[in-house]
Design brief:
five-stranded mixed sheet; 498 residues; Uridine Diphospho-n-acetylenolpyruvylglucosamine Reductase, domain 3; alpha+beta; DNA polymerase, domain 1; Ubiquitin-like (UB roll); binds FE2/S2 (inorganic) cluster; binds flavin-adenine dinucleotide
């Protein structure tokens, strides 16, 4: 049975503990901050997680007891999701007597603001970097600010402001606030949440209670980071009568490993997975760098990215190539499903009533195996893929002995190119692509024309990504290595653009 015990939400808002009874479970944090609390510094630009004008800083205690801080988009966070966390808005960044915080002072000194609409979001993102120990190098700053859009200032002065923070000293009041916030977070253990307002929001803290709740209420919407669901509410105005959150079970927020597998459970977000898996899969690290923004990566989950069945999600093609297995659970029963069998048709996945995605098993790369993950999108940062390819090859003396190719953006579901995989066996990775492989690739997919790209473009991209991946396998270089090789050119280009 599900855990019981109704209570309100407890949060540390700008250093003050608050007990909140949300007007409805689908109230967003931004709506509550602006309309209820009259904290109007955080702005609503897009209401879909894209522009960063609503950025706030969320502090939480992780299951290992560590306190972490990250920027998040208040416009797509639902109020019940912040239970037990700390929230800092732009109103609480300056000092107690109105002294500017170093991140604000840097923006002033470097003329980082014009109309000012985006400025609270930039300041909040910089403050998230400040709290989480950013070293203020250019790549770190670009990652930190990729989810904040500015229409007027231009990014040069904002980046210069951020770079100047490397030498900034923390004021005493900032240190004191940090200490007080950390003590509050440490003193508050995560407890289950059961809200029943116009809509219900249930957040159990044990796997059994979660699994039972989902089986008992199969019509309730399973919710994780809400980086998809938030948009259903703010953009499609969908009314969802009941939510069950997978995010409060401590065991579900930790990646574990066996000799040959990484296990990624339902509560792990993209930022955590990026950090944990970067060494084992540098190719995924590079992909995650370009996945959405710091704000979305700190909330959206890896399992949510697979469970949503999106044909243009970034991780599914990579996980198809790596040969991932999904573990689906109904009450106590588990079944293991190869990831390719999960995607049945457009927006249709092999998930039974009352079943949920408990974890993803990702095989470790063995010697002789080569893996690439390459994303093509119109913008480098913060953009959905046009075509996404994941490629895994086993080579023996340069000859392909096994291959798995996963593509996104080429069909109604993320899909393996099985005919191409077969045609590649026996081919030397370093040799030009033979006609039979190209024919196989053309027959594996018939992609659509849409606003992102034409059918011909997608087909051409699928081929070019395969060529790139084969080249990387033949020469032992990852796509990230190649980008690193290009970085002096990119830096020169960026310098010229400023
Ligand atoms: C601004 C922005 C940029 C984005 N950029 C990218 C991008 O670059 N690449 C990309 O691939 N995606 C991108 N996304 C999409 C989204 O962030 C990801 O798909 C994310 O991983 C979804 O996870 P979530 O935890 O937020 O899911 P939620 O929104 O909570 O849920 C999404 C769906 O998955 C289901 N679900 C979640 N967890 C489970 C579970 N454990 N078991 C069963 N069902 C479950 C939910 O019921 C729902 O149907 C972007 C989104 C935004 C808002
Ligand atoms: S309002 Fe644009 S990201 Fe929230
Ligand atoms: S200063 Fe106007 S949008 Fe950034």
């Amino acid at each position: 049975m599900a855990e019981s015990g109704k209570r309100s939400i407890r949060v540390l808002l700008n250093g003050v503990e608050r007990d909140i009874t949300p007007p409805s479970a689908d109230t967003t944090l931004l709506q509550w901050l602006r309309q209820d609390q009259r904290l109007t510094g955080s702005k609503e630009g897009c209401a879909e997680g894209d522009c960063g004008a609503c950025t706030v800083v969320i502090g939480k205690k992780n299951s290992d007891g560590r306190i972490s801080h990250a920027a998040a988009n208040a416009c797509i966070l639902l109020l019940p999701m912040i239970d037990g966390l700390s929230v800092t808005t732009v109103e609480h960044i300056a000092g107690p007597n109105g002294e500017l915080h170093p991140v604000q002072d840097a923006m002033v000194q470097h003329h980082g603001s014009q109309c000012g609409f985006c400025t609270p979001g930039f300041v909040a993102s910089l403050f998230a970097g400040w709290r989480s120990g950013c070293a203020w190098t250019r790549p770190e700053i670009e990652n930190l600010l990729a989810g904040n859009l500015c229409r007027c200032t231009g990014y040069g002065p904002i980046v210069a402001a951020a770079m100047s923070l490397a030498d900034a000293k923390p004021p005493q009041w900032d240190q004191d606030r940090k200490t007080a916030e950390e003590s509050w977070l440490k003193a508050h253990d995560i407890t289950s949440l059961n809200l029943s307002s116009a809509e219900a929001f249930l957040a159990p803290t044990t796997i059994d209670a979660l699994s039972d709740a989902i089986a008992d209420q199969p019509q309730a919407q399973i919710i994780a980071g809400a980086t998809d669901i938030g948009l259903w509410i703010t953009k499609q105005f969908r009314k969802i009568p009941a939510f069950i959150s997978v995010m409060r079970v401590p065991e579900l927020s930790v990646i574990t490993e066996t000799d040959d597998t990484f296990i990624i459970p339902a509560g792990v977000n993209h930022a955590e997975a990026k950090e944990h898996l970067a060494e084992a899969y540098p190719q995924l690290d590079e992909l995650w760098r370009r996945f959405a923004s710091a704000q979305v990566r700190s909330t959206g989950t890896v399992c949510g990215n697979i469970a949503n069945g999106s044909p243009i999600g970034d991780l599914a093609p990579a996980f198809l190539a790596l040969g991932a297995t999904l573990v689906l659970q109904h009450r106590h029963d588990q079944r293991h499903l190869p990831i390719e069998d999960f995607f049945l048709d457009y927006q249709k996945q092999d998930r039974g009533e009352g079943e949920w995605l408990r974890e993803i098993h990702l095989p470790k790369l063995k010697t002789g195996a080569h893996f690439s993950a390459i994303k093509i999108s119109r913008r480098f940062d913060q953009d959905i893929s046009t075509v996404m390819g994941g490629f895994w090859f086993a080579l023996d003396a340069g000859v392909i002995t096994a291959a798995r190719l996963g593509y996104g953006g080429m069909a109604a579901i993320p899909k393996r190119a099985t005919k191409t995989e077969e045609a590649l066996i026996g081919h030397r990775a370093a040799d030009p692509l033979p006609q039979d492989v190209m024919d196989a690739l053309a027959s594996d997919f018939s992609p659509i024309d849409d606003m992102r790209a034409s059918q011909d473009y997608r087909q051409e991209m699928a081929k070019n990504l395969l060529l790139k991946a084969l080249d990387a396998a033949a020469h032992g270089k990852t796509h990230a290595d190649r980008l690193a090789g290009l970085s002096p050119l990119l830096d020169a280009h960026q310098g010229a653009a400023e």
